[in-house]
Specification:
The structure is a single chain. By secondary structure, the chain is mainly β. It is 7% helix and 43% strand. A 12-stranded antiparallel β-barrel has the order 1-2-3-4-5-6-8-9-10-11-12-13. A hairpin with a 6-residue loop joins strand 5 and strand 6. The longest helix has 14 residues. The radius of gyration is 17 Å and the shape is globular.
Length: 206
Amino acid sequence: MAKVHPQMPAAVPPRPPPPSDSCITSRRETFTLWMKSLVIQGNGYTVFNSDGEIVYRIDNYDKKCSSEVYLMDLQGKVLFTILQRKLHVFGRWEGYKCNGSKADSRKPCFQVRKHCRILGGGSSCEVTVRPNEAQSCYYRIQGLAGKSTFKIVNSEGGVMAEVKQKQTSSGVVLGDDVLNLVVEPHVDHSLVMALVAVCGLIHHRM
């Protein structure tokens, strides 16, 4: 049976792990997304790094597409609380960054609004990120309706992260619940994981 997590070539020595609180690196990083929870009969996803180690997870004990989910690290520390707000037809999702054991409930760190394009069968989401009260960044999640492939791009169209269906080194395509995620350098991994979680909620995959 093929492994869902990446395999490092034998000739490449393992690199030292980054600090546990580091969510940004200076190199491109590859992750494997398994759209399953490690909890029996739970909903969510599990994220492996390029060494096959679990680094992020969502374990949703409620029903699928819950209106409130939590992005955690391996140790169970909550990084983002993600809430769905009912708004017109498509709704809105908000992410609250957690400091310590509580989420900052004053203002969301990010907001995601879904849009659909009738022509072409595609869909996209507008993302507003507010790292602080004086700064706002605008991104877009671009994808195809019914497909697992999507990109997160910045306001200039530069790709920040990309998700595709995972293939083994021999070219075998794994199931649609096993995805490959590439995050570009200097991009916050935890933010990308939270946006991926929103995509999973939108498409009823977790």
